[in-house]
Amino acid sequence: MTEPELRELALRVLRKIAPEADPARIDPREDLREQLDLDSMDFLNFVIGLHEALGVDIPEADYARLSSLDGIAQYLGEKVPGAAR
Amino acid sequence: MPSLGADMEAGTLVKWLVHSGDTVRKGDIVAVVATEKADVDVEVFAGGKIETLHVAEGQKVPVGALLATIRGEGEPAVAAPTAPVPAPPSGPRAIASPAARRRAAELGVDLSRVSGTGPDGSITLSDIEATASGGRPSPAPAPDRSAAMRRAIAAAMTRSHREIPHYYLGTEIDLGAALRWLAAENAKRPVTERILPAALMLKAVALAAREIPEMNGFWQDGSFRPSASVHPGVAISLRDGGLVAPAIHDADRQSLEELMKQLRDLVGRARAGTLRSSEVSDPTITVTNLGDLGVETVYGVIFPPQVALVGFGRVAERPRVRDTAILPVSTVFATLAADHRASDGHRGGLFLASIDRLLQKPETL
């Protein structure tokens, strides 16, 4: 998967959790949880959603790298086997 | 019509999931009822055979109204209710005036296909005519759920502030041991089985409520009625505004895994609007967690007829003195809002101390 595809997938998972969010208004560099008002349960569901879609296991210790959309795309690019960088 | 929250006065029977003659077991979901806050799956409180359904779909009836007659195994037929409600002549949810019904018959319009735009979704003459002329599909104006929820919250909270002499206590709890234990546990678990600190705090509150029963129960008819079971209501904010606090049953007797699973399920269903009647009708104490928003300290308002609410703020590393050094320590401010009619500050203090003590031994939760 390419980085734009990973980004799109992350947004799809987020839409299920925060259906009212407008992806066009997300600043990819800024804190995602703040922008979308995600609580810790929402964030856990997001990580579970990524796990189910990509088969990646994201340890809690890596959560800090998932704070922004840019960070998520980069992190998934490293974790998903065969992802184009 | 069950009471699905302290301030519910009436509910609308949206849908029956059983028919006359069906056999039901206690706990089966038999109907969907709309309150001001949510659509709720109503569970039946006794088993037997459904003899009569007394309320038609779409009808709004007061709390306490007879919904159905159930005959238990081998029981004589239960006497018919004094005023059975006739089923509407057309499909479900059709509330229409006689004039509108006549016009519908003249024009050959099936009332069940018309979305009403009148009060309470009732069908008006112009709805009938618009449908007959093939004009606008007359989309039902979505009932303004958020305005109704605001009214329900306003009623409950006004009653709380008017009737309940609140007292407030707060304590800072060291979560170092709990978070270290949780991090080690979660590192061993697949992502789908990870436990959030909120589940740990919920369990600690439930166990503490069992120890200090004055916090767990209801103020009713001028006296405190402790509850034998601990059903903490978990405050869940809805994404489009508003708040529900459905119960997790017997939280004091569940493992952390079970609690976490239920918490996830409950948050999901609360936000999807599919709560069950037993969950919304019988919380015995409320827990609210606003730490994710960066709130330091919660000053809660008790949900009547309950007598206590526990609030948790943000978990953060704060500089604290340990022995002779200043160290970064993960702590949370826990607060108690309690009903002074049911308990005094001393018992409230013991309750908070008990939550603190329990959180120091996370492996025993």
Structure description:
The complex is a heterodimer of chains A (85) and B (365). With 85 residues, chain A is mostly helical. Chain A has a single domain (3-79), classed as Non-ribosomal Peptide Synthetase Peptidyl Carrier Protein, Chain A (Orthogonal Bundle), CATH 1.10.1200.10. Chain A contains four helices and no strands. Chain A has helices spanning 3-17, 32-36, 40-54, 69-79. In chain A, helix 1 (3-17) crosses helix 3 and helix 1 (3-17) crosses helix 4 (69-79). The longest helix of chain A is centred in the first third of the chain and has 15 residues, at 3-17. Chain A is globular. Chain B has 365 residues and is an alpha+beta fold. Helix content of chain B is 28%, strand content 25%. Chain B has helices spanning 98-107, 125-132, 145-163, 176-188, 197-211, 256-272, 277-281, 345-359; strands at 10-16, 23-24, 29-34, 39-43, 48-53, 60-62, 68-71, 166-174, 217-220, 223-226, 232-234, 236-237, 243-244, 275-276, 285-289, 308-312, 316-322, 325-339. In chain B, strand 17 (316-322) and strand 18 (325-339) form a beta hairpin. In chain B, helix 1 (98-107) packs parallel to helix 2, helix 5 (197-211) crosses helix 6 (256-272) and helix 5 (197-211) crosses helix 8 (345-359). The longest helix of chain B has 19 residues, at 145-163. The two termini of chain B are 37 Å apart. Classes of the chains: A mainly alpha (85), B alpha+beta (365). The A-B interface holds A 18-20, 33, 37, 39-41, 44-45, 47-48, 51, 57-61 and B 183, 186-187, 190-192, 194, 196-198, 239-240, 263-264, 267-268, 292-293.
